[in-house]
Design a protein that fits this description.
Helices cover 34% and strands 27% of the residues. It has 337 residues and is of the alpha/beta class. It has a domain at 1-59. The strands form 2 sheets. A 12-stranded mixed beta sheet has the order 4-3-2-6-7-8-9-10-11-14-13-12. It holds the Pfam family F-box.
Length: 337
């Protein structure tokens, strides 16, 4: 019995003396299930497996239709949940704030994944932190193919998030996004979302931009308007692209909005290829440089035909306009509030 234990100790010592390159060569002959089991033997085996491109080739890339990141306050950890609609499968990873700070690595899981949609949901009370976004940016870079078409933030607190980290996330995926939307965000300041973030998107890809239900920090030092300006609109028009826009508390002006509409109407009238595109829309709410009065004057000066819909009740400040080409069936709907 003692001799058997002594032999096991000698074998373990022998393995420990082998360089990582030799272990990687040995491990490469194992099947997938054996590799998975090997990762939990010890930290060194896990490191050898996770750093080997050859071993990881054994595992097919899995397409996840949706990745949802949320914080469970009652349990005090983050949940990363991805699912595949076709196979009706789902997987979850749980991680605490402390593990995020200690740079916990989930390389193996992300190295096998590709995400179509990324959703940040219900991250309140400062839980959308720099640590969680840094963690995600790092792990998204491990994905063999990180090309999501949809990035959304819903019911999230931005008060401790650095705009630089959001910029980093958009650097990774902005070129592939068709939809970028932020709904019910709070704890904002003027730089939380700005022109530099919009310009990380691919104007040839993006189809919808939404920033609505925005709440700002209560402070005399924070202006309650995002630094999304006419530069973002000019940048889109410069590429000849006109995504649907829903903006709130931005610094966009009435003249540039009218120019955007005018350019789209002209393009739509000339476009004989996409004949199915008959309508478009633009919504601006609580933008200090936009008003119905100036908008109507701009339309008259630019000879843009429009009709105006009165609000259903006098307490509703929203004004709705429909602009159209006289010689075509295309129209552009505008909502101002």
């Amino acid at each position: 019995m003692a001799a058997s234990m002594e032999m096991q100790e000698e074998e373990r010592d022998y393995l420990q003396k082998l360089p990582n390159e030799v272990l990687e060569e040995i491990f490469s002959y194992l099947d997938k299930d054996s590799v998975k089991n090997l990762r939990v033997v010890n930290k060194r085996c896990k490191k050898v497996v996770d750093s080997s491109k050859e071993i990881l080739k054994k595992f097919d890339v899995k397409q996840a239709n949706r990745l949802v990141i949320r914080y469970l306050h009652e349990k005090k950890f983050y949940e990363f949940r991805w699912c595949n609609y076709e196979s009706k499968t789902a997987r979850k990873i749980y991680i605490t704030s402390e593990e995020l700070k200690n740079d916990q690595i989930f390389y193996f899981a992300f190295k096998q994944m590709s995400f179509q949609r990324v959703m940040f949901k219900n991250l309140s009370n400062k839980s959308l932190s720099n640590e969680v976004l840094y963690f995600l940016c790092k792990h998204f870079s491990y994905c063999p193919k990180f090309e999501p078409t949809n990035l959304s933030f819903e019911n999230v607190d931005f008060c401790v998030l650095s705009p630089t980290l959001l910029n980093r996330l958009l650097e990774l995926c902005g070129q592939f996004l068709e939809t970028f939307q932020i709904n019910n965000a709070y704890g904002l300041n003027r730089n939380s979302i700005n022109d530099s973030h919009i310009k990380q998107l691919n104007p040839l890809k993006i189809k919808r931009l939404t920033m609505q239900s925005m709440k700002f920090l209560s402070s005399i030092y924070h202006k309650k308007v995002l630094k999304i300006t006419d530069e973002s609109i000019k940048w889109l028009m410069g590429a000849g692209q006109f995504p649907t826009l829903v903006f709130e508390h931005c610094q966009i002006t009435t003249p540039i909005m009218c120019r955007y509409i005018e350019c789209w109407l002209k393009k739509a009238a000339r476009d004989t290829v996409n004949t199915n595109i008959k309508s478009h829309s633009f919504m601006l709410k609580h933008c200090p440089s936009v008003s119905s009065e100036i908008f109507e004057k701009e339309c008259i000066e630019r000879k843009l035909s429009y009709s105006k819909s009165s609000p259903e009740s006098s307490s509703t400040p929203e004004q709705t306009y429909t602009l159209f080409n006289e010689n075509s069936s295309t129209e552009f709907a505008v909502s101002l509030c």
